[in-house]
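Sequence, please.
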């Protein structure tokens, strides 16, 4: 219990210390800055990462599901009557299929093993749903988590450059939610409430859609 408390305090201190740094460098995702602070605190107190991971992984993995469901709260404040339904459906279908097909194709061209190829198929969705899909596809869960988090970090880090000429918060938020999942959604909230809501909407709908068609498609081709 004491080790869990220490791990939680290290994580909380790292997050609080990362916030002012993120305000000075908003192009760097808050999560990335907090990760470096966690590493620094572990080195400072000489706490092995394996011990920290063992104590905290179960707790944060459990809380991650609640956080994902809590994204429904900002969706309740959205106005859906002005959404271009046909365009949104087209964007979501294209984003979901391409986010699965491109990483899988790259892994196949690099002659990776079948479980690894299946792991890259989960890149399209956020971590809690990706873990469930990985279980269905018999993919290595650790690799799936790494792929999803890394894609989110990269997407959020380069969002300020890629979206610099996009002034519509709805478009930029939707793009961040679709491409960078939860990390991109957090980055979208820094751009504005409209962008944050559309990011949460894009991430949630894309995750549900992908979780339905991807396992069915893989089982069909097998």
């Amino acid at each position: 219990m004491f080790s869990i408390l220490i791990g939680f305090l290290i994580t909380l201190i790292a997050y609080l210390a990362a916030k002012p740094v993120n305000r000075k460098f908003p192009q760097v995702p808050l999560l990335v800055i907090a990760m470096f602070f966690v590493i620094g605190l572990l080195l400072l107190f000489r706490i092995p990462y394996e011990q920290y991971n063992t104590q905290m992984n179960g707790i944060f993995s459990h809380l991650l599901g609640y956080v994902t469901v809590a994204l429904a709260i900002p969706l309740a404040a959205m106005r859906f009557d002005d959404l271009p339904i046909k365009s949104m459906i087209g964007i979501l279908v294209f984003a979901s299929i391409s986010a699965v097909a491109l990483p899988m194709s790259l892994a196949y061209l690099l002659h990776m093993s079948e479980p690894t190829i299946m792991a890259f198929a989960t890149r399209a969705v956020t971590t809690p749903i990706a873990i469930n899909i990985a279980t269905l596809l018999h993919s290595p869960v650790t690799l799936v988590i790494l792929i999803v988090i890394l894609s989110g970090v990269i997407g959020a880090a380069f969002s300020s450059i890629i979206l610099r000429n996009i002034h519509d918060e709805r478009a930029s938020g939707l793009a961040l939610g679709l491409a960078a999942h939860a990390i991109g959604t957090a980055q979208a909230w820094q751009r504005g409430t409209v962008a944050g809501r559309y990011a949460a909407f894009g991430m949630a709908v894309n995750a549900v859609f992908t979780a339905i068609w991807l396992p069915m498609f893989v089982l069909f081709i097998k």
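The chain has two domains: 2-70, 80-221.
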